[in-house]
Amino acid sequence: MLVLLAGIFVVHIATVIMLFVSTIANVWMVGYSDTVKASSGLWLLCNRSCRQLVVASSDDASLKAVQAFMILSIIFSVIALVIFVVQLFTLEKGKRFYITGAVMLVCWLCILIGASVYTARLAKMSGFQGVHHGYCFILAWICFCFSFIISILYLVLRKK
């Protein structure tokens, strides 16, 4: 049981780190303009230098929603990690990790909403050729899977 808890803890920390990287780095979309590589993230458009990400006025609310939900997912993931450590040492057997699993499900939902809105509304770079998804976009979806698995494991572990 201790090895299982340690493994979940390590995966949870890895998920938090990957969420930070995917939210902060500006490589959600990658394209080329005259053989110069450009990348677009949630905050900046980087070509030779980085500048504020400019989106159409109809997509501005979508961008703000993605930014907010990705930040919320980081917050809920860190809160779940703290709650896990607190519950590990304070609650008796049979009542552990219920709150942690619920908070991680909220984190999972935030990642789902943020990544889905980005996929539906913002996954384009006008004026660039060879546009494809960058590593931050892929990390966000990996965190989506990890957070769901972790939350289910927390809910199952509460019975042990």
Strand content: 5-15%
Strand tally:
5
Whole-number mean pLDDT = 90
| Principal-axes shape call | elongated
Whole-number count of domains: 1
Task: Figure out the total of helices.
Answer: 4
C-alpha termini separation: 9 Å
List the uncertain runs: none
Largest sheet: 5 strands, antiparallel
> For the CA atoms, what is the radius of gyration?
18 Å
Strand order of the largest sheet: 4-3-2-1-5
Order of H and E elements: HEEEEHHEH
Helical fraction equals 55-70%
Instruction: Kindly name the structural category.
Output: alpha+beta
Describe the overall structure.
With 160 residues, this protein is an alpha+beta fold. The protein has one domain. The chain contains four helices and five strands, in the order αββββααβα. The protein has a five-stranded antiparallel β-sheet with strand order 4-3-2-1-5. A hairpin with a 2-residue loop joins β1 and β2. α1 runs antiparallel to α2. The N and C termini lie close together (9 Å). The model has no long low-confidence stretch (mean pLDDT 90).
How does the SSE layout of this entry go?
Elements: H1 2-24, E1 29-33, E2 36-40, E3 44-46, E4 50-52, H2 60-90, H3 98-122, E5 129-133, H4 135-157
Antiparallel strand pairs: 1-2, 1-5, 2-3, 3-4
